[in-house]
Amino acid sequence: MVRILSQTKSAAVNPLKSSQPLGAAFAFLGVDGAMPLFHGSQGCTSFALVLFVRHFKETIPLQTTAMDEVATILGGADHLEQAILNLKTRTKPKLIGVCTTALVETRGEDSASHITNIKLKRAEELAGTEVVLANTPDFDGAIEEGWAKAVTAMIEGITRPGEQARQLKKIAILPGWNLTVADIEHLREMVESFGLKPVILPDVSGSLDGTVPDRWVPTTYGGTSVEDIRELGTAVQCIVIGEHMRHPAEVLQRLTGVTYVLFQSLTGLKGVDRFVSLLSAISGAAVPAGVRRRRAQLQDALLDGHFHFGGKKIAIAAEPDQLYQLATFFIGMGSEIAAAVTTTGTSKILEKVPAESVQVGDLGDLEGLAASADLLVTHSHGRQAAERLGIPLMRVGFPVFDRLGSQHKLTILYQGTRDLIFEVANIFQANQHAPTPEALDPFRKREMPDELRSSPLARH
């Protein structure tokens, strides 16, 4: 059984994780007409905004209540109310997603009561705009928890409760934060190929896919509509991707009776086969020929690629669910997990990571554990460690700011698994060193003893 090693250092060295508020804002960005609002100081918002812009290379709608010293001491309810009203007046969002920060959480503000009072007092002014709250202190958790809390808040605050008439072709999908824009787009196409109608929450493929609108839009554009969130209870089935999305699915089931099926990873042949079988069972349709063809392509890629993976040592630093996704992928290809580092030790998925131990820590821990590894797998902040160790780096997760197109890389289903195999195998091939004659024959330059040099056999 894997050992979960807690962090014992008093300071992070080259931090691995990003904060809960950032994860919550990320989820809100997957809703059409949304505006994430950080309830805290300007600095918290500015830092998250920089990371988003560097990663996506896009304009990101993100606002702050801009609490100052006085508000920090006396309370930020007035700042929160004014910020919500200003956003409603100036940007007319369909959804305002409030993400609390360490400033208000440490102070102990009752943000939920504040928002309830604001919605009651300003009901007429806020008509047409949903306001939901995710309690996301910076000092606890990471992106996973923030993303899941935001999705939970949207389901609790917007979805119509109670048993409703089911639409037999409608499926609710709750994807994990680690799915890229391309992943979610490909996921939708796969579900639609079975004649089903997916409603994905959040859907960053519609809002962060790099398209440019023909006019200035101050909020998100594209993504899950508020109306679709409201009608999630009419889905016949909920599909959940990632252990951290289990709680939002449980909330949806409790409110509406919609049952869920959890996939801890959609990378790898076995998990995707299970997913495809489920879609076929729900739709009553045979697996489309195009899906079968992509499966055959993955089988061929597995055959071609496993020669390059066998015996390789991999060092991974990622959020728990992404760590599990990548570790199981590499193990399935015949590699060994030499080091596994994650951001938080609370996720149950860590117990299933195929490694001897998982260190809760930072990129400094990864560097210390990865000296014998053949490949480092983490986000762009791991590039210095890779350079110092002389090990190639595969960039995954958030943020990836020193490469273009990270959000358009597939990592799931048959095609995404195939692409991952090719990407990693090509990294190994590009960094392999041809053996020298000395390495092949260690006796090549060995000095011959004098008694052998003078023998008749040596002369001939």
From TrEMBL:
GO terms for biological process, alphabetical: protein-containing complex assembly
Cited InterPro entries: ChlB/BchB/BchZ, Nase/OxRdtase_comp1, Nase_comp1_CS, Nase_Mo-Fe_CF
Domain named Nitrogenase/oxidoreductase component: residues: 19-428
Gene3D superfamilies, A to Z: 6.10.250.1090, Nitrogenase molybdenum iron protein domain
Transmembrane segments: none
Annotated keywords: Nitrogen fixation
GO MF annotation: an example: nitrogenase activity
Organism: Neomesorhizobium albiziae
Pathway(s) it belongs to: Cofactor biosynthesis; Fe-Mo cofactor biosynthesis
Region (Disordered): 436-460
Record field: compositional bias (Basic and acidic residues): 441-453
Keyword Nuclease recorded: no
Protein name: Nitrogenase iron-molybdenum cofactor biosynthesis protein NifN
Sequence similarity: Belongs to the NifD/NifK/NifE/NifN family.
Function of the molecule: This protein may play a role in the biosynthesis of the prosthetic group of nitrogenase (FeMo cofactor).
Listed NCBIfam families: nifN (TIGR01285)
Coiled-coil portions: none
